[in-house]
Amino acid sequence: MKHRNQLLLIALLCVLLAAGVFASDYVSGIAAEIMIFGIFAMSLNLLVGYTGMMSFGHAAFFGIATYMVIGLGVHLGISGWWGALAAIAASTALAALIGAFCIRVTGIPFLMLTMAFSQLLFAGALKWRSLSGGTDGLTGFVPPDLFGVSLAQSAGARYAVVAVGFLLVLLFLNCLVRSPMGSIFIGIRENEQRMRAIGYPVQRFKLLAFTIAGGLAGVAGALYAFFNAYVSTDILHWQQSGDAMIMVVLGGTGTVVGPAVGAGIFLLLKTVISSHNEYWALWVGAIFIACVMFLKEGIWGFVSGRLRNHSRRPRATQAPAVPTAEAKK
Amino acid sequence: MDFFVSQLVNSLALGALLFMTAAGLSLIFGLMNVVNLAHGSFFMIGAFTAMSIIQLTGNFWIALGVGWVPAAALAVLMERVFIRPMYSSGHLNQVLLTFGFIFVFGDACRFVWGTDIRNIAPPALFDGSLHIGGVILPLYRLFVVLFGGVVGLALWWFLERSRIGAMVRAGVDDPATAAGIGINVPLLFAAIFALGAALAAIGGIVASPILGTYLGMDIEILIPAFIVIVIGGMGSLRGALVGALLVAFIDTFGKAYFPDYALFLVYLLMVLVLLTRPQGLFGIARG
Question: In this predicted complex, what is the ipTM?
């Protein structure tokens, strides 16, 4: 029953995503952006929601991938497809390297250390102008062709590539969190000491989670390069990491897809409110605070919990309202 | 040599500003176990309030005397309504909560004071510079150094010698026992939160003739202040002082002597300290 529901949901999602190809360029552009940041937020949630590691420097892996695709294209003329592969490899490797340092601490020091590494990268991009273009950014990247259709010209093709990437990441994460490895991640979040006592090499699994999350953020970054064809240092700014955190909390940490919903809510709020009112950050901040205080499971967690309640009323539900990771003192 | 001395004064002035901001942050963490990311906002609110008071009265000293009150009042409100329900829900939820407040306070400041960048003239008494040999030292920066020292001493006296300070220290060590012997811990928490915010706001007021006032100064002080307390050890006043001086020296001299690498140096310092001593230089490792 549950399985069939899930298949139905995924099929529905596929139809919905497929419909986007025929939407207007404006709508498919917004949808593509939401999905890209959805991937980014879902990858951060693997750390924050599932493994209990509050990273504030996740933009590093997103940004390095975007820079890689566009940098390889602009400086060396390498096709975007090869660039994307190189970019995902680069962000995975960078995540493994940074993660090896960061997992040695927890809580606030972990948060500060992840932020410090991403700020170091930001400073590097700012200073190494010949490579990164600094604040002016890198222009002139031409997105590759897909079956003879140029991604540079066709918004529909761009959208299709992003949608396929989004679905693949969603499926991958769904399988991951249900796998034994996903259970280990959740175990680390719930009680790191006990996991250690049972005999799991906790540090190794934390590094693994950090690396996978970095690699997935790299997928989002590479897709963003196709989507935007331009990159500047803004992409590595701490605000990018902060935005991802807001998306995760708005959508909810308890489910895989929640943060992607959060990304949608965040970007739509930003578009809608900022066109009516210049104080959009105030509203987003207020909604964010309300979520942190009263809606621990996030907007998606709340809605899906309600829907589940509704569909099978007789049985008490076990809505997996996973609280945000608690600090371990 | 002249260049060195003037940079020394600059770094001491920056250290004083960082200390005033970081001391409140550290105190709040030490006593209340609350991580307040909106602390930089109090700094900014202090600076903006000072600007308004100076525009109104033309007197910097009035601004310094009462300019911190709105920030402290806002802090009391924030502690009562938002932070108190979150005491038991862990650092990371508090981080998220106060992170949201950065946006709210930032936009509220934009609403009240607009987006203009404004300069503030230093008070007439310190508007000038001191010439010693070939060195030209702005008087106002010397005042900031002195003022930071006085605030530091007052804070030390308050915590170590006064009755309320003893209560605070008792609350830091063991809030349950402190409550048991009749200390009103919730009141103490609110008072310390307000004191921390007032310190940050005073930092902002004193900084305004140097930095001017602009949106975004909240983050610009928040990140180094956090680096200061992470390096110095969270909850330690001595750590805040040493950390503030260390960060200020490295930042100022880095910018003066290695302008290309200045951005890296402070973060590198933090990475090194965190990897070798995660609890910070003066922090006590918590089990």
Answer: 0.83
